[in-house]
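Table S2 (continued). Query chain:
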Amino acid sequence: MAAGGEHVNGLKADPAAASGRAGAEREPAASAAGGFRFSAGPALEDIRRLQAEFTDERDWNQFHQPRNLLLALVGEVGEVSELFQWRGEVAEGLPDWTQSEREHLAHELSDVLIYLVELAEKCRVDLPQAVLAKMALNRLKYPASKVHGSAKKYTEYKD
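Corresponding output:
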């Protein structure tokens, strides 16, 4: 990806926005609940296309098969875990983290997303549609009227 706001394949890369340093005009808006909200783009399809172009340009498709992508994904999740290791509980919004630590987290989470999207592509899983279907299943398994305020698994709830 590009640094410093350069255009990459028709999309503007903004590393400041990714790590929470953007100015007020670039800040993600608050959601209806008053919390954090992602920026409008790029969409998962844009990310898939950008990564496919990046991989094609380097002739790396020979290495980017599902098993290898899964192992790379797990490795990147491990790198995210390292950032949280030995910190105890971390408050939402990471108020005690330095800007450098936030940027490092943004990079590692981006690696996780990139590998996840590429794995979904190679496995022919339409990730946005799969997420909607899974959320619908979760609503059935965990009806708010039954589970509100509880962390039990769905098999532990009684009718």
